[in-house]
Amino acid sequence: MEALPPVYVCGAEYLALCDSLCKVPKRASMVHSLIKAYSLLDHMRLVKPKVASLEEMASFHTDAYLQHLQKVSEEGDDDHPESVEYGLGYDCPATEGVFDYAAAVGGATITAAQCLMDGKCKVAINWPGGWHHAKKTVTGLC
Question: I need a surface site. Which of 8, 12, 30, 106 has the fewest CB within 10 A?
Answer without folding.
Answer: 12
